[in-house]
Amino acid sequence: MTLNTRRVATHVALALLAAFVGPLAQGQTFPTHPLKMIVGASPGGGSDGLARPLAAQLALDLKQPVVVENRAGAGGIIGSKATAASPADGYTMAFITDAHTVSASLQKTRPYDPVKDFTPIGMVGYSPLILMVGKKTSITTFAQFLDKARSAAGGLSYGSSGVGGNLHIATAQLSSKAGISMLHVPFKSGGDALQELLAGRIDVLLAAPTNSVPYQNDPRVTLVAVTSATPLKEMPRLPTIQSTGLDFQYATAIALVGPAGIPAPIVTQLNAALNRVLTQPEMTKVLDSQLVTAAPGSPDVLKAKLTKDVQDISQALAAGQLKLME
Questions:
Q1: How high is the pLDDT of residue 318?
Q2: Mean of the pLDDT values across residues 183-197?
Q3: Does the pLDDT value for residue 31 go beyond 70?
Q4: 3-state secondary structure of 132
Q5: Domain 130-244 superfamily per CATH
Q6: Using alpha carbons only, how large is the chain's radius of gyration in Å?
Q7: Which residue has the higher pLDDT, 8 or 64?
Q8: Which of 107, 155, 235, 266 is deepest in the core (most CB within 10 A)?
């Protein structure tokens, strides 16, 4: 072998080694500076109330700050779009709910592909919703809610976190199941909708636990029922909708994703950190207080769920159960 041939062979070997070791080394040194968690809700909203303590615990685990950035609006689309457009270096992630797939899938022109434009990091958990009504409705039971919704002149009004968001879809599914019709009034976030309910400007809200449990003794609202399959240990006297005779359950899925193309070693590191955090006592207390059931798992589990959600929405559109936004 000539000297030049040996040099070429050496360069090729070094290039191959760099290609193999580079991503691994990147994962080992990651992170070297603060990370960002985008939340598609306003400060004080249901998602924000869980995202912030989760970011704080991830920061302790990763030994770098995790800064929450609120990008509310359009049923979570604004936050997801910002995430998809971010560098695929692992330093930007999004705290998402079902709205991530639903809101995008209901647009005539999709703002992003809920699966292909993102890197799944992992599931956070599942949370029920609580049916709240304003005091001016005089409703105290689920049966009274159904009667009022069916007989009220002009119908009841309900708020949501935006068209196509999980609160909108959950209430629409409940209305369909119960055979009632209510006026939809969308807001930028669940927190904004809650303020309108407290002010008496809307009648009904299916709210996240963070936006409902603290108000169980507030004279301005009444908590009527919960969408979980079994009663809440925190509020055992609050009936499930299922127990009233209507076959209806709903749980909001919560997860973390990043932009498409994050190197696999970094995804593995972020997923491991998330799974560790979800089992730590400090985070367990937060999850319990917000009625979230933790669901640690692999990125593949989340990818399969996102894929199925998109398929389910497509089938619902084809069957006429959902309609594209105008």
A1: 80
A2: 91
A3: yes
A4: strand
A5: Periplasmic binding protein-like II (3.40.190.10)
A6: 23
A7: 64
A8: 266
